[in-house]
Protein 1
Amino acid sequence: PAAAQFQKPEDAVKYRKAGFTLMAAHFGRLGAMAQGRAPFDAASATANAEIVASLSKLPFAGFVEGTSGTEKGQPKPNVWSDRAKFDEGARKMQEEVAKLAAAAKAGPDALKAAFGAAAGTCKNCHDNFRVQ
Ligand code: ASC
């Protein structure tokens, strides 16, 4: 069912990139608060955290076979040759971003810690699976 929504590989690429773009926008707003570049606002942080958690479920269906590349930002072939590790990284990210809303409600220190943990899971996959 995941792959069936895409008629062409390019559609899957477009879909996953759109998902990550939206995640980055909302995660970035949390980061600004977590790092003191924007004033902490519990309601706004919670709303952004809930959006990130929902969005985190979407992009991975777009990693269909045959869509690796060699340009900066593209997925390396090991996404598919080492798929269990990739999927585990995705699961870990989803687990950490699911904690952001509760942390946002708890306050700026909790948000800062949860943001750092979540960002680490983003970086882990970027380091291992994304062309630098
Ligand atoms: C972000 C963003 C990412 C991650 C990554 C964490 O805000 O857009 O891709 O955090 O930079 O290391």
Protein 2
Amino acid sequence: MLLESLGAGTGVYGAFQSYAARGLVLGRVAFAHRDRYRLITELEELEAEPSGALWFRSPDASAMPVVGDWVAARVVGPGQALVEAVLPRRTFFSRRAAGKREQEQALAANIDLVFLVCALDGDFSLRRLERYLTLAAESGASPVVVLNKADLCADPAGRIRQTAAVARDAPVLATSTLGGASMERLRDFLAPGRTVALLGSSGVGKSSIANALLGEECQATAEVRAEDGKGRHTTTHRQLLAVPGGGALIDTPGLRELQLWAGAESVDETFDEIAAAGAACRFRNCSHCGEPGCAVREALDEGMISADRWQSYQKLRSEAQWHERLTEPLRAHEYKRWVKSVHKAQRKARKK
Ligand code: GDP
Ligand code: ZN
């Protein structure tokens, strides 16, 4: 019952079947810090670590459990378990790992709906929202745009109109955690079996929204003991919480400051008017940088595409292409070209 309310449906139970036969239990990751996890299972909560087999079989760090993952775990002692397998993810947020090497870092999994929280104070930015919308498109989760701190804004309706033009099909709501009916309207998006995550810069009101949706007691009991970097025990907040009326809410620090890890296709989804115009360019691989017969240039000149949108499109698009180049294996024709260039260099060297 509990797991169903948290989103375990036929897909999850189907994927878990073969593990059930081996005596493993189904759990959902409510907290993850390095290789320590907290699992919610039907009967109890478990402290868990990855099994040796999981370490061994994982192709890279992004395959290890993250908040929101459904896992198969082996109970090895009172309240203790080893995670043997991560079940297939439906949706998946990730970002560039810190450091020089570009590596994908998983942040949270199996999110149905994501509240993209912006604040209607001085820091409001449509450009940042475009970034969040692109991330949501990449993850597979459906976005809801939440314009919080509406009480600080003289013209929330105007902001909603502006935002709706950028948000496309995503619902846009103005909210305030200080009072009024807006939290009720936000609560309407929660439902048994559904997982909602909060995404947005620090200070926009995510914790306040979580408290309003969950009730204060829920947060107060949500503490987890974890080890900090120096091996000391500290208390941190759980990152996945059961919603009183059913469903799950994810609020993890990892989702709070995101760099773009998205493909060019997700950028196109966010800027669909530019992608649509581009389909009419004379050349299929048109870069919209001065080629003849460029429909995007034409749309820009006619004011069908705004200069602001065009600028953020170019920026996000080149970021996305940069990641794709670094992470995709070479395509066949690129490989052939590369072999050719190596042969050529070798011939040159031999001649000398
Ligand atoms: P988080 O960093 O996104 O989790 O933001 P918090 O929930 O911690 O909120 C940051 C600050 O904004 C706190 O001082 C809150 O009291 C305040 N705050 C949150 N929601 C609202 C709101 O709707 N209106 C106003 N005026 N302040 C808010
Ligand atoms: Zn073009």
Protein 3
Amino acid sequence: MKTVIFNWKMNPSSLDEVNKIIAVIEAESVAVGRSELVILPPSIYINLLQQKQSNIFASLGVQDISDSENGAYTGQLSAEMVSNLGLEYALIGHSETRKYQHYTTQDIANKLTQALKYNLTPILCVGYEENPKANEINIDLIKQELSDIIIPNRELLAKNQILIAYEPIWAIGSGITPSLDSIETVSILIKKTFQDIIPAELESTANILYGGSVNRGNISELKTITSVSGFLIGGASLDTNQIPSLLS
Ligand code: PEP
């Protein structure tokens, strides 16, 4: 079963629209049983989604967490409060947060520490470049990023699961996806890099996701990539016409 993660970003703009999306997911509850659904809504909608959670069979998470424990950090969410609220996932290092909040690799490593400390399953995005060339895959950068972020968190990762999302920045929201072959190659490489960094006795599991322009037209063939455990989906996850295909 593949994991399907809906990243709603800063959408939709009203409770009415959230309710419409929930109604479609609810109507697809049989299909939802065929994929594992995780929704990352804007945090203002979490309460509503928690009330509907048993109807939509979804796990919930947040789109970012603070790299600090608590205190005077206006606008931020701590991993501890997210966990205490019963949420299970935290997206970390999404390219939009790296671009607009200027997070560094060190910030992202610290966010991962917080997520693991409070038992949230991290969804770590890799593949961010400031000036990417379309269709180019910078494997060295991904390897470097992984070691800078994972090595300081090695002990906390013991017996834990992490989801690592390969998201080439040029594929996000562009309608362009890498070839199936290159997604497979990069996902295998990410898994291998993780295994090289984390000793087997720590029993950590990394599952690899792909994100970038996944939609109802390409999800079936993307699902054939066995090294990919699921998908991080932005735009299409807000489209009530596409949701049934994304979940089936
Ligand atoms: C994303 O932002 O994580 C993403 C994958 O977006 P989209 O599906 O819209 O390309």
